[in-house]
Amino acid sequence: MYKCALILAAGQGKRIKSDLPKVLHKVCGKEMVNHVIDTLRKGNVEDINVIVGKGAELVKENTKARNVSYSLQEEQLGTGHAVKCAIDFLKNKKGTVAVFNGDAPLIKEETIEELFKAHKESGNSATILTSILDDASGYGRIIRNENEVLKIVEHKDCNEEELKVREINSGMYCFEIESLVECLDNLSNDNSQGEYYITDVIGMMKEKNEKVGALVINYEETLGVNSRVQLAEVEAILRKRINNKHLENGVTIIDPNTTYIGIDVEIGQDTIIYPGNVLEGNTVIGKNCLLYPNSRINNSIIGEDVEIQSSVILESEVGNNTTVGPFAYIRPQSVIGKNVRIGDFVEIKKSTIGNNTKVSHLTYVGDAEVGEGCNFGCGTVTVNYDGKNKNKTIIGNNSFIGCNTNLISPVTVEDNTYIAAGSTITNDVKSGELAVARAKQRNIEGWVDKKGLIKKK
Ligand code: UD1
Ligand code: CA
């Protein structure tokens, strides 16, 4: 069945006190509006129109990978006015449209499917997702007569009786497009905020004797974010939900309260995660990994049986059985092979490191292609920048790079070579060669005594 939706994302978000449009604030690493888009898609809603206004270009920029269309609300005159701005999207359509606020990221895909189903089965003109909150302040209240929904009254327009109502409007609805469009023309802004409210449509439909209804769901899914306090609350709920999913899939998380996993991260069974890990973006972690404390891994693919400790890995790949850290920094576009050792205070930038290679301590490898089975001594540096250009270092298989070697790029070190410790390598090294590039040692006999430098007791 074809399904379409509008997402309201044009508001300023005054209460969040930010230069960034509110819907671009992130929850568990993803912008709120993108949570809503992705969940709608998972709930089989294909055709999505996002209404943009405040920071329109930024919102478009941050959602464009998701293949949605846009409507522009130049002036933010309220949620009802926002829906009206999407009239071009609605006018040639028949049937049902979902309307969702862009600031409520906790809704689940199953609930979206239930909403469409309940709406269709009931023959309603509008079906609202609602919930019961202990503290309903700030939300629109669902006003009922016996069991029937009569209207929604915004918090600021409630009388004393209405303020006591704890059933709230989530800002998520299904509407029959034709009845919705009819009502849009008759909205008024005669209310305490002087805005055109989409919520008024409910009362208008009811007065026309059309059926409206509500689906009451778990309060957590309906929470909207207006302030940074609510942003942190929603973050904590989603974090717990994500961590529970991984726990249920067979991942050990020693302290879920201090483990931060993005919503799109995948983790294999029997991986153990210690406190203080931050896993972001589209990161994939294989089975049986040990993530010791305090790493940040962003948009990276980590194999199986990998051990990582106190390190930062960005947009890179790490092969099976490899160990990283403590205190390693793997920068974007690096590909680390299998059974590799990237040790303490090692930085790898835009380089490939072949299987079984060891880069154990205090080393910088940038813009390099390193083969298999190599050993880097402590303090090796690829000198990849000549002040103008970044140049490449190529190292073959089974090469031994002595401690404190400088590899002045562009330079190639072939297979099966040795470089003496302390060398500064400016010329290529051919297969089978030992390269020594340092001043010869000279010892001057009796020098200390002659200078009178022997310390007296
Ligand atoms: C809205 C509902 C309220 C509901 C609550 C749920 C109305 C009038 N009120 O209130 O009943 O309980 O959500 O969280 O709808 N927006 C626009 N253009 C505008 C104004 C807002 O696109 O002119 C967008 C905002 O970007 C936001 C969404 O609509 O994503 C909701 O706006 P907001 O101002 O947060 O509405 P609430 O006061 O929370
Ligand atoms: Ca809101």
Automatic annotation (TrEMBL):
**Top-level class of the enzyme under EC nomenclature:** transferase
Instruction: Show the catalytic activity.
Output: alpha-D-glucosamine 1-phosphate + acetyl-CoA = N-acetyl-alpha-D-glucosamine 1-phosphate + CoA + H(+); N-acetyl-alpha-D-glucosamine 1-phosphate + UTP + H(+) = UDP-N-acetyl-alpha-D-glucosamine + diphosphate
Q: How does it assemble?
A: Homotrimer.
Q: In which pathway does it act?
A: Nucleotide-sugar biosynthesis; UDP-N-acetyl-alpha-D-glucosamine biosynthesis; UDP-N-acetyl-alpha-D-glucosamine from N-acetyl-alpha-D-glucosamine 1-phosphate: step 1/1; Bacterial outer membrane biogenesis; LPS lipid A biosynthesis; Nucleotide-sugar biosynthesis; UDP-N-acetyl-alpha-D-glucosamine biosynthesis; N-acetyl-alpha-D-glucosamine 1-phosphate from alpha-D-glucosamine 6-phosphate (route II): step 2/2
Q: Main subcellular localization, coarse class?
A: cytoplasm
Region annotated Linker sits at 229-249
What is the name attached to this protein's record? Answer: Bifunctional protein GlmU
Gene3D superfamilies with a match to the protein in the record: Hexapeptide repeat proteins (2.160.10.10), Spore Coat Polysaccharide Biosynthesis Protein SpsA, Chain A (3.90.550.10)
Q: How is the cofactor bound?
A: Binds 1 Mg(2+) ion per subunit.
Write out the function statement from the record: Catalyzes the last two sequential reactions in the de novo biosynthetic pathway for UDP-N-acetylglucosamine (UDP-GlcNAc). The C-terminal domain catalyzes the transfer of acetyl group from acetyl coenzyme A to glucosamine-1-phosphate (GlcN-1-P) to produce N-acetylglucosamine-1-phosphate (GlcNAc-1-P), which is converted into UDP-GlcNAc by the transfer of uridine 5-monophosphate (from uridine 5-triphosphate), a reaction catalyzed by the N-terminal domain.
Q: What is the source species?
A: Clostridium saudiense
Note one Pfam family from the annotation.
NTP_transferase
What cofactor does this protein call for? Mg(2+)
Q: Which UniProt keywords apply?
A: Acyltransferase, Cell shape, Cell wall biogenesis/degradation, Cytoplasm, Magnesium, Metal-binding, Multifunctional enzyme, Nucleotidyltransferase, Peptidoglycan synthesis, Repeat, Transferase
GO molecular function terms noted in the UniProt entry: glucosamine-1-phosphate N-acetyltransferase activity; UDP-N-acetylglucosamine diphosphorylase activity
Give the binding site residues for Mg(2+): D103, N226
Q: Which residues bind acetyl-CoA?
A: N384, Y385, A421, R438
For the region Pyrophosphorylase, give the residue spans: 1-228
Q: Where does UDP-N-acetyl-alpha-D-glucosamine bind?
A: 8-11, 22, 73, 78-79, 140, 154, 169, 226, 331, 349, 364, 375
Cross-referenced PROSITE patterns, in alphabetical order? HEXAPEP_TRANSFERASES
Q: What is its EC number?
A: 2.7.7.23, 2.3.1.157
The record's comment on protein family reads: In the N-terminal section; belongs to the N-acetylglucosamine-1-phosphate uridyltransferase family.
Q: Where is the active site?
A: H361 (proton acceptor)
